[in-house]
Amino acid sequence: MDAKEAVLKYIDDSxxxxxxxxxSPPQNAAGRRYEEKKNSWSYSDQELELSVIVNCSCHNYYVxxxxxxxxxKVTLRDVKKLIK
Length: 84
What we know:
With 84 residues, this protein is an alpha+beta fold. The protein has helices at 3-16, 29-39, 76-81, and strands at 41-44, 48-56, 61-69, 72-73. It contains 3 helices and 4 strands. A 4-stranded antiparallel sheet has the order 1-2-3-4.
């Protein structure tokens, strides 16, 4: 995955998981671990660090998104500006 693909994936995942707190996770532990592994990812190079971490509890989805440019934490709006 290169930087452009990572930025696009970060934006897509941010939109997709926007209301994930209200989703119903799988009923068994194996299903919850599978969802976590399938949807969590990270990318880093010298200037850009992006990660989306998905955690499932018995009742909720929790999504943690982190974006850093040159070591400085940035918002989704700043990440979208990288596409232009």
